[in-house]
Design brief:
Shape: globular
Largest sheet: 3 strands, antiparallel
Number of strands: 7
Order of helices and strands: HHHHHEEEHEHEEEHHHHHHHH
Distance between the termini: 75 Å
Strand content: 5-15%
Structural class: mainly alpha
Number of helices: 15
Radius of gyration: 22 Å
Amino acid sequence: MKTLVLFTALNIAFLQPLKAQDFLYQESYEVLTEMLENPTKYSFKKAVFSVENAHSQGQLDPVYFNQKVRSLSALANQLYKSRTLKYEGKDKIAVSKYAALFSVLNDSIPIVDASGAIRMYQPFSYDFNDPFGHEDWNAMMVSKLLETRKGNCHSLPYLYKIIAEDLEVEAHLALAPNHIYIKHKSEQNGWYNTELTSGIFPIDAWLMASGYVHLDAIRNGVYMKALNNNETIALCLIDLAQAYQKQEVYDLDFVIKCADKALEYFPNYVNAMILKSEAKGKQIEGLLYGYRSDFSAVRSYPKTAALFHEIELEIAKIHQLGYRQMPEEMYLDWLTSLKKEQKKYTNKKITTFK
């Protein structure tokens, strides 16, 4: 019976079916799936809210969430109308809105209130406390960012994209190891990067400087690709699965279902592949617990052997795509390097205000 020491009651809990209180997760899955299957239903704001509301067990107020977003959109619109950009491309309106939105997230702005008094609008900032949501998944949420004005490389670019869509301009999410940022394309400057965690427009060399962006990963669209709407909703599906896994008891089949749907629309989404492989690993643990065996017997049973073979194939594909795991402490060092070496990595082509 020593083999049973390797497992806990939680392993068996992984095999339980979707619970009644998990209805909001299923509802969010259906919202996201509908957006993928019917592009006219697409709304990144609605997608993000559905995921965060599921995690919050339906406690988020959609009216409050929308009001917060609208107030930021209104401020960006006011800045756009009141400032002139040193830019003369045919897409000047869109680029000017990008610049105004960037200011809303990153700059202190003097605002005149109804009484005529001037107050300083305070920008959003990076929260280095639990930046990966290990302790509290709320750290990853836009709703938390709107409330505290502190976020990370997940919530900040998400909010940027939500507001951009409110302003009726495009903003593409893009991926790097452990990281999300914004890519824009302008007539005058081509593709350029917008980094919300440090408030800078970095060149691609900064992304490569991490040492974990393999050329194969770029070629295969794993990193540094401007994501389309479907690929963006695929990110939300994995957010949904990761938030769902924060519960004490959850259904691994639901996690795998989210990953499968994400991969259907973003085939080389490595985070979805990793999540799916890890879920299958936990399924193996649960099955072996039921067989009163440990992992050394994984190939001794048809079900566990089949699952293990699937994992081996998935891991091989992940490696072939060019994915390399970046240690979290190295990620934080790389992130702060952008401010320390700002002159080296800033895109000097990006225009400024008159």
